[in-house]
User: Fold Alpha-catulin from Aegotheles bennettii.
Amino acid sequence: SQITTLINHKDKPKRSDKTLQAIQRVGQAVNLAVGRFVTVGEAIANENHELKEEMNVACIEARRAGETIAQLTDVASLDHPESDSHITIFTDKTGVVKAARLLLSSVTKVLVLADRIVIKQIITSRNKVLATMEQLEKVSSFQEFVQIFSQFGNEMVEFAHLTGDRQNDLKDEKKKARMAASRAVLEKCTMMLLTASKTCLRHPDCESARINKDGVFHRMRLALEQVIEIVTDSRPNGENEMAPISIYSGIKEFKNKVEGLRENLYFLSKENLSTMLEVILEHTEDFTDSAYTSHEHREHILELSKQAKMELEQLVSVWMQAQNQKTKDLMEDLEVAILKTCQCMNELKREVHSAATTLAADLLKYHTDHMILKALKITGVEGNLEAVAEYTCKLSEQKEQLVEMCRLLRHVSGTEPLEITCIHAEDTFQVTGPQIISAAETLALHPSSKIAKENLEVFCEAWESQLNDMSMLLREINDVFEGRRGEKRVYLSLPRPGKHNANLKALKPVKLDTEEQAKIAKLGLELHLLTSEVDSETQKWEDQENEIVQHGQGMSSMAYSMYLFSRGEGLLKTTQDLFHQAEIFATEGTKLTSALHAFSDQVHDDDKPLLLLEAEKLICMCKQLQITAKASVQGKSSTFTKVDACILKTRNVMTLLCQLLPLCYKLLRKATGNSCLKPAPPWREDRIRTGTNAHTPERRAETFGIKSLENHVTNMTFLESK
Assistant:
């Protein structure tokens, strides 16, 4: 930006001292910035001998260009720079342009070389991890395993930091999502590798333990390979990545082509359009052929598919006529045909979305109690091989249901990153299911083995964690479909200077330091858990259009965006964005209070005081949050205190909401005689029956995420003592 200022300065006949001083300051600033930049480049060169020569040449060029710019802008001491023999920006503007080009070129070279070094660091780190993994596979003594795993843990921490930084730097959202998926696999598999290897060492002759361990190592190698593919932007054997086309992306492209006929009648052939529609309709067979799609959805999809073919035939007929004779009537007919075709495709899109998300919501709700996993743990400890075999069959059925759910959700995910997340979830269920089975078989064969029991727990936790992730994914997919992402989302329409707040221009976004970020991140995680609980409660309601449900879901989405802010992600980029979001969250809470008062008229007199008492608590909390969010602050310390207070008070409101929603649901059931309960879908018939109360699913905080890699390494102290 400083170079642009120099290049674009106006050649005025009269130059004030102020102008001359400003030009000199800019030139000196450029030179100093280049000097600092080059110092870093030279330091990198000294640590990386294979690129030292190239890096040093680029640094020398950059330094020379910076010095040239400083010389050409050394004009403040000159009374008449035009008549002086000293060459300046005024006598040789082309010299500044040349120096600027050389500077930008050399700076780019330094950046590219530095990037190559970063890639090399990641590859070297990966190679270290792979080498240590090979050693871990071959160890035969527990003591040797502990020592090598400790080294492996440190190497994984280093790899996690390097790839995390790289993920943040990636501009391509698709690559970012793939990197996040691979890193998640590595993080979860680190703990699995620990317990699976320990089990294998404890029971060396057990075939199921060996299969379990081999599965973890294989999955980690695949994830490591994918990270390198993303970092180096390459595929093995030069093959291209062919991602399957989803129904959403197919419909979007098809509609674009159809609407393009308004501008140009000749830019594509009718065969192209017909082929595109055929591909879309082929993909709808994933829904119509699925055993888990309801009869109503299947019939509607088939009807809309038939209608889409008819609408396209009509469109092609009018289109061909318009190509031969461009009359006003024909162009009007063409417009009608375009509108009808696009409307039909929109209805088809809506129908497949409804089919996929309804199935997902029902499945996730049905499996929240983790009955099969609990039964496997119990029967495994009992050493009951027959019962374990029965429940492993049921787990395989559950896995197939969840895999099918992921495939259908991918079609309606709406964005490439969410598509990739669906594919990752599908892979996770495919792989983790058999691993749980082998871990359960090992425990059944060695029922007194504590390590076999611990191993099964770890794999079950990974399964539960993925189910929780699916609830979040489902909400994101619904948000995209309903336009509740980006600027379209009403409660995320952030303030702009002069529009929402006259004083906003004076406010500067504040960047928090590491310690402050850690504190906010902890609060954010608590908020994350509460949003999951609220979502779980709202999904129980038959009437999703109920005002209480609507406000509850809205507040949960806003709280989730605040959680993302605590991680440095999402649409809230600055502290001002967060404060604005907190205000709207409080307003939504006030609206919920009104809905609760209206609802209190429907409940029995005995229950009304309790409900009204909770509603009063809510309105007080929302008022306090609004006051905090609107309070003006200055300075970093005050801003951090305000951020902390806003998230803390939002968390308190969400905690109360977690108590209010089940209370309202209970009172509604009481008032309506349980008529709000959904009928069980056909795939629920084989539900296993145990003594556990299915209506009180366990909510364990640790299932929302696997421990950090650093904790895995710390745990080795405990292993050594054993």
